[in-house]
Amino acid sequence: MAPVTFDELFAGVPVMAILRGMPIDKSVELAVRAWDLGIECVEVPVQTEEAAGVLAAVVAAGAERGKPVGAGTVTSGERLGWAVEAGAAFTVAPGLDVEVARASVAAGLPHLPGVATATDVQAARAVGLSWLKAFPASVLGVEWFRAMRGPFPEVPFVATGGMDAGNAAAYLAGGAKVVAVGSALEDPSQLPSLSALLHPTV
Predict the structure, then answer these.
(1) Which of 40, 43, 85, 143 is catalytic?
(2) Which of 5, 74, 79, 82 could form a disulfide with 52, with the two C-beta atoms 3.0–4.6 Å apart?
(3) pLDDT tens digit sequence for 45-67
(4) 143 tagged catalytic
(5) Edge-to-edge strand ranges of the sheet holding 132-134
(6) Is 49 part of the annotated catalytic residue set?
(7) Which listed residue (133, 154, 177, 186) is catalytic?
């Protein structure tokens, strides 16, 4: 599969599913359900080597459908190695570690670092990262995104942390380009509700 960019991944798809801490079968099942609903972007955090095995299984399922899958919580060289070995298409982290970010990009995986302040945003942009993850978004609040539009109108943000079908629309309206939903996916009603955001009524 050819390298993918975040511009391509998130084009017209303002929702990403995060499959954290779930067994392989459930992770693959939810990923397939997300893809069937039009949610193209799926991330599997790799906090443990066991989780890296889950990522590999979801990557394999995605490859059958031409869907790239990312590795989340990539906070070290070891976890980046797991992501590369599993076949991840991109990496995500809760914060900005310049060394990890550069190593990920060098490995051909675009990196989405977490930011929470203007200083974080400037630091991430300084090392060439374009898309940034606002984390924890539910703590930062919708007004954070509106405030960041002033100094950083060109920066696309992914709202992550505390997102669900109930608040996603407000964050998208407030300036987030994408909302990433994780623990809320334990509720089976979430994915269909989130898919409705892909086709908003006029």
Answers:
(1) 43
(2) 82
(3) 999 999 999 999 999 999 999 99
(4) no
(5) 111-112, 90-92, 69-72, 41-45, 15-18, 178-181, 157-160, 132-134, 114-115
(6) no
(7) 133
